[in-house]
Amino acid sequence: FHFDSSRTVCTVMADWGKCLDFGVSIARQVVLDAFEAQKVVSLKTSPADLVTETDQGVENLLISAIKEKYPTHKFIGEESVAAGASPVLTDSPTWIIDPIDGTTNFVHRFPFVAISIAFAVNKQTEFGIVYSCMEDKLYRAQRGKGAFCNDIPLRTSGLEDITKALVVTEIGTERDDLSLSTLTSNIYRLLKIPIHGIRAVGTAAVDMCLVASAGADAYYHVGMHCWDIAASALIVSEAGGVVHDISGGKFDLMSRRVIAASSRTVARGIAQVVEAFPCERDDGLPDADQAIGALTQRDGHWVSNDFLKLPCDKPCGIVIESV
Ligand SMILES: O=P(O)(O)O[C@H]1[C@H](O)[C@@H](O)[C@@H](O)[C@@H](O)[C@@H]1O
Ligand SMILES: [Mg+2]
Ligand SMILES: [Mg+2]
């Protein structure tokens, strides 16, 4: 099976604007109509991880609208994954969808709620949009073609001096001691640099679009999901920003760790003081920390105390001569 990604991307590119504008315009009306209404709220992974019938309805609406046009494409949707669908990103053309980013805000009528849709081929995001519903701001980017908000070009602040930075992050849905102590100590260490301040809007997608539009200078988080940031990571980089792993290394969309910043200097400054707590990758593969954690010392060697499952899904042992 040879997948001609260039043709598919061009085809989808040719009319993604119309297709998505159509999908978003319907989804937008559903969200706005439901914003003031009473909601039926369910819990997912914690007492703070909320979902409503509107999240599920908007996701179904978007997926069926896109499927009608591109029946062979794949989907990673937040609520489909919650219902058991596989979140593994393959080389196939894949739509990564967060139907309502900021569900807690939506439930409480805190007016920052976004729809996030990204399109990836060969695991590379080709375009993405974030629609901030209550602000009526449509952020969009196409790889190599810049980033825009309501068709106005976006540029990050370009700030290099972290002591002058306004940083956004999220409290997330974790409520265990390790996650919360890591999260709060990260905020403490950042403020002691010092920096100008920290904000949390309640939607990762809008947080990152604030970095792209110079409303903030950086965003960092551990625990969000690929659907929260797939579109906005491209919007930040197309606005001249940088997107890295929380360690300052290479960004990995499925790792649930990110720093998006106005410059590499600011990103490095954040990476030097923030720590990550362990959280399972979106695709369920072992991450580097877990892999090392799975090793024990024996006869002076580091040996794997169980087999690591690698992307090839074949068990294998690894021996590290020295660490
Ligand atoms: O509202 P969601 O789509 O669930 O995304 C939220 C997430 O649940 C929360 O943990 C935070 O990471 C927010 O920044 C996300 O936008
Ligand atoms: Mg989200
Ligand atoms: Mg969501």
From TrEMBL:
<feature type="binding site">
    <location>
        <position position="101"/>
    </location>
    <ligand>
        <name>Mg(2+)</name>
    </ligand>
</feature>
<dbReference type="GO" id="GO:0006021">
    <property type="term" value="P:inositol biosynthetic process"/>
</dbReference>
<dbReference type="InterPro" id="IPR020550">
    <property type="entry name" value="Inositol_monophosphatase_CS"/>
</dbReference>
<dbReference type="InterPro" id="IPR033942">
    <property type="entry name" value="IMPase"/>
</dbReference>
<dbReference type="InterPro" id="IPR020583">
    <property type="entry name" value="Inositol_monoP_metal-BS"/>
</dbReference>
<dbReference type="GO" id="GO:0008934">
    <property type="term" value="F:inositol monophosphate 1-phosphatase activity"/>
</dbReference>
<feature type="binding site">
    <location>
        <position position="98"/>
    </location>
    <ligand>
        <name>Mg(2+)</name>
    </ligand>
</feature>
<dbReference type="InterPro" id="IPR000760">
    <property type="entry name" value="Inositol_monophosphatase-like"/>
</dbReference>
<comment type="pathway">
    <text>Polyol metabolism; myo-inositol biosynthesis; myo-inositol from D-glucose 6-phosphate: step 2/2.</text>
</comment>
<dbReference type="InterPro" id="IPR020552">
    <property type="entry name" value="Inositol_monoPase_Li-sen"/>
</dbReference>
<protein>
    <recommendedName>
        <fullName>Inositol-1-monophosphatase</fullName>
        <ecNumber>3.1.3.25</ecNumber>
    </recommendedName>
</protein>
<dbReference type="GO" id="GO:0046854">
    <property type="term" value="P:phosphatidylinositol phosphate biosynthetic process"/>
</dbReference>
<dbReference type="GO" id="GO:0046872">
    <property type="term" value="F:metal ion binding"/>
</dbReference>
<feature type="binding site">
    <location>
        <position position="100"/>
    </location>
    <ligand>
        <name>Mg(2+)</name>
    </ligand>
</feature>
<dbReference type="Pfam" id="PF00459">
    <property type="entry name" value="Inositol_P"/>
</dbReference>
<keyword id="KW-0479">Metal-binding</keyword>
<keyword id="KW-0460">Magnesium</keyword>
<comment type="similarity">
    <text>Belongs to the inositol monophosphatase superfamily.</text>
</comment>
<keyword id="KW-0378">Hydrolase</keyword>
<feature type="binding site">
    <location>
        <position position="228"/>
    </location>
    <ligand>
        <name>Mg(2+)</name>
    </ligand>
</feature>
<feature type="binding site">
    <location>
        <position position="78"/>
    </location>
    <ligand>
        <name>Mg(2+)</name>
    </ligand>
</feature>
<dbReference type="GO" id="GO:0007165">
    <property type="term" value="P:signal transduction"/>
</dbReference>
